Amino acid sequence: MSAPSANDKKVIPIAVAAAAAPPPESPTGAMIRSLGLVSAICGLIIVGAYQGTYDAVAANKRIATERAVFKVLPKAKTIAEFLAQPGGGVSRVGAGGTAIPPGSVKFFAAYDESGKLAGIAAEGVGKGYADNVRIMFGYQPDCQCVVGIGVVAMRETPGIGDKIITDKEFLANFTALDVKLKSDLSALANEVRTVKRGSKTNAWQIDAIAGATITSRAVGRAINDSAQALLPRLVPNLDKLGSKS
Amino acid sequence: MSTAAPQTWDEFMEGVWRQNPVFVMVLGMCPTLAVTVSAINALSMGAATLFVLVCSCGLVSLMRAVTPKEVRIAVYIVIIATFVTAVDYAIQAISLALYDALGAFIQLIVVNCIILGRAEAHASKNTPLPAMINAAGMGVGFTLGLLALGVVREVLGAGSLFGVALFGAGFQPWVIMVLPPGGFFVLGAWLLFFAWLERRKLRRAASLTEAGQHV
Amino acid sequence: MTQPLIEIRSAPHVQAAKTVETIMRNVVYSLLPICAFYVFQYGISALASIAVVTGACLATERFFVGTGTQAGRLSDYSAVITGLLLALTLPPGFPLWMGAVAGIVAIALGKALFGGIGFNVFNPALVGRAFVQAAFPTAIATYTPSFLPGRFTEFIPSTLAWPLMIPADAAVWLKAKHLDALAGATPLAKWKFDGVLANADELLTSLSGHMAVGPSPLLILVCGAYLAARRFMDWRIPLAVLGSAALTAWLLFAFDPARYPNPFFMLFSGGLILGAVYMATDMATSPVTPKGMWVYGALIGLLTVVIRYYSGLPEGVMYAILIANAASPLIEKITQPVPFGRGAILGMDRVKKRASYPLNPGYISREEASAVTPKKRFLPNKPKK
Fold it and tell me: Is this model's pTM higher than 0.80 or not?
């Protein structure tokens, strides 16, 4: 770097030591004007960028969601987004994603080729080793069980925690994980629980991965919490999801 | 400052090589270490930074006549944040997977000291064209630096380059390379390499003055 | 070399006949029996591992010394020590190419990056090991039992893995030999994950068969005693490490014998003895003050036990030493010895004024000539002749 930096360092040049008077202050009006100008230009740029990319971003998000749902429910061909209301009952969410009212749970109904209900997909969040582990799981109303999971977002240690998407034995837990409701439909009959590797005895338990217990537990808790919140509201209303209109 | 071709080239190459932000100035280490787990991440992070750098330096340079000294930092930050937001939208539109991989580091470009440093030290004192050329040089240098880390980390950490598998099924991934310490190790190795290169050049140029050289 | 008439330089002015090279050579000598026994235990794979790792260290050292950026020479034996120690800390069936990576990283990033011998902050061998532990967590946890039949004619299959490729599964190989795959676990791993304590005599000598243990702790202690007796190594550090580890382990054992293993097991399993005698005593990375050595050693012992008990890792010596390495400049700073005669005179307020040196006006250098000259103090009770 060259000469200009000398001023910043407050080195007083020997020859002009007398001229060390502070630089004249800028008038307030000029400051406000320039800040206003900058804000206006920047505002225009941001709005332009937002408008220009809006469709592509929305399409991307939809594709990403569909892909996640199709992964946990392989038979699905189309999806629709629903909300389970806090008081019970479900409502369809229009495309574009309106604001979600507090207390309600978002889920996706998936339909197969003929338009029949192929399953339900919902997201769950559990505290993992590094950060929250967000998973998507597929729910099959016929057997009242979880039939597949996929990871939406996680920051677990590569090679250890991320085995939850590669470890075949672990994924085998989710071919028919029991999430039956109690007879009064108020809660799950049995809590979904992650147990120590090799000690799975019941259909509602998950065998943890050796060495990745915390992440495995996060998956179990994510499914449990989400199922506890969603299923009691969903199951009585299954017929409302109907078939693809 | 004339814009004759050699000088323009010189201006550009300053950031790419002599003042390389990653390997010479060691600036912007946060994204350098955090997102370079794969070559594609490194390249897109570098490209995003390059875009923000060039655009914001151009705009800062255009506004330099109407920017009072007292509010200049505020102006720079607003300008930089604007372009970062635009890049943020653009990356979401291009690929959500990439957006997830880069995570918060896209937004954090705002506080990347390379950009603010360029705006303050160069763009605010030059006309738009040289400012943008200089910024482009810095951006390219930053991208190359990230890529140098990203390529090594992806090849060793995943056995692939830009997602293309290089070694076949039996490859033993070096787990450390995709973890944060891998970033430090690779950066250290590159710094060692460039220090060695510099040493060799100096020694060849003047073997007499070897004793008093800076480290 | 011509003898200069007047030699002008700063302290130290008194030199012993020991040079860096002599010390290092003696350390290598003392390591040779340990290596020999290690080869006897594990056969040809261990020999190949030692040769390749040391070779990689020497080649890397040669390259960096050749660049002219390093302190030290290839012939000062320090790279040999790094290589031997590194090989001893790795499992015997560790793939050779990973061993070479460990050796290169140890010298390049553990030593050359800082400027060569004497400038390194961390023990180079442990830097190399830490790197491969993080890079290849599976391979480094795969031990094979010692004293296998045919160990001098047959390599452990994982040893000969192709560069960059996954090594062969040792469990399959062991099964073919009709051995339990668990036999490949180290005593520490067995204790941590299965709650099995190994017998004392097995730990001490490593002689009884089919146990995945490192070099014999007894042999290391004997070799270490040789070094300490010849003053090539300071005895305080190993003593402090072992003492503090034993004390911590004993306190925990006394607190809950069911949950914590006995201190004897803590001392003689894993790499604690090797670490205490050969790694922690690395001259460049440990404090030079006697008091500092005690603090440093105690820190290592405490951290080792804490890591072993409370972390996800079965072994903690490596990280304990690396952490203490990082702390050693600080330890040195706070354990500066009091200048001669100073402590006795000031008595009570000694702690407060420890760092201040009364300056004799005659010794004030030219740069300090303009500084305020401290008054010459006549001390009431001069040291007796």
Answer: no
The average pLDDT across B65-75 equals 86
Task: Give the range of the structural domain holding residue A91, as residue numbers without chain letter.
Answer: 61-241
Can you tell me the mean pLDDT for A139-154? Answer: 82
CB contact set of B6 (below 8 Å; sequence gap of 6+) = none
Short-list B195, B149, B174, B182, CA closest to C101: B174
Q: Give the pLDDT means over successive 10-residue stretches in chain C (385 positions).
A: 66 73 89 89 88 93 81 82 91 88 91 85 92 84 76 79 78 68 63 66 61 73 89 88 91 83 80 88 87 92 88 81 92 78 50 46 46 53 52
B71-123 pLDDT, tens digit per residue, is 888 889 999 999 999 998 898 888 888 887 787 788 888 888 888 888 888 88
Question: In this structure, are residues B32 and B41 in contact, taking their beta carbons and an 8 Å threshold?
Answer: no
Q: Please name the residue that has the structure tokens 């099995």.
A: C196
In a domain, A131, yes or no: yes
Angle at B120 between CA B21 and CA A47, to 5 degrees: 95
- Comparing alpha-carbon positions, the chain C residue that sits nearest to B207 is C68
Find how far residue C284's CA is from the centre of its chain.
Answer: 11
Output the six-digit token pair for A169: 């034995």
C72–chain B nearest CA distance, Å: 16
**CB < 8 Å to A160, chain C:** 137
Closest C-alpha among C223, C232, C224 to residue C16? C232
In a domain? residue A226? yes
The Cα C92–Cα A72 span in angstroms is 44
Q: Is residue A207 part of a domain?
A: yes
Kindly report, residue by residue over B162-177, the tens digit of the pLDDT. Answer: 888 888 777 888 888 8
Per-position DSSP letters for B40-104, written without gaps between them? HHHHHHHHHHHHHHHHHHHHHHHHGGG--GGGHHHHHHHHHHHHHHHHHHHHHHH-HHHHHHHGG
Q: Judge whether A53 is closer than 8 Å to chain B, CB to CB.
A: yes
Q: Is A136 exposed, middle or buried (0-12, 13-18, 19+ CB in 10 A)?
A: buried
Residues 6+ apart with CB under 8 A from C202: C187, C208, C211, C213
> Tokens 């729910």 label which residue?
A139
Chain C: give the shortest CA distance to residue A211, in Å: 9
Around Cβ C338, how many Cβ atoms within 10 Å? Answer: 14
And the tokens for A11?
A: 């080195």
Name the burial class of residue C146, with classes exposed (0-12), middle (13-18) and buried (19+) by CB atoms within 10 angstroms of its CB: buried
Give the residue from chain C lying closest to A212, CA to CA: C312
Q: In which element (H, E) is residue C225 found?
A: helix C217-229
The C-alpha atoms of residue B161 and residue B147 are separated, in whole angstroms, by 11
Which of C293, C290, C283, C285 has its CA nearest to residue C321? Answer: C285
pLDDT, position C3: 61
Contact predicate A131/A123, CB 8 Å: no
| Phi, psi torsion values for C13, nearest 5 degrees | -100, -20
Q: Is A74 on the interface with C (CB under 8 A)?
A: no
Instruction: Please choose, from the candidates C177, C94, C179, C172, the residue with its C-alpha nearest in 3D space to the C-alpha of residue C132.
Output: C94
Give C72's contacts (C-beta < 8 A, 6+ positions apart).
Answer: C20, C65, C78, C116, C117, C118
Helix pair angle (C20-42, C78-89), 10° resolution:
30
Q: Which amino acid is at C291?
A: K
**Could you tell me if residue A31 is inside a domain?**
no
Query: How many domains does one find in chain A?
Result: 1
Q: Which of C164, C169, C318 to mutate to test the interface with B (most CBs of B within 10 A)?
A: C164
d(CA C276, CA A195): 39
Task: Kindly state the tokens that stand for C116.
Answer: 């060569």
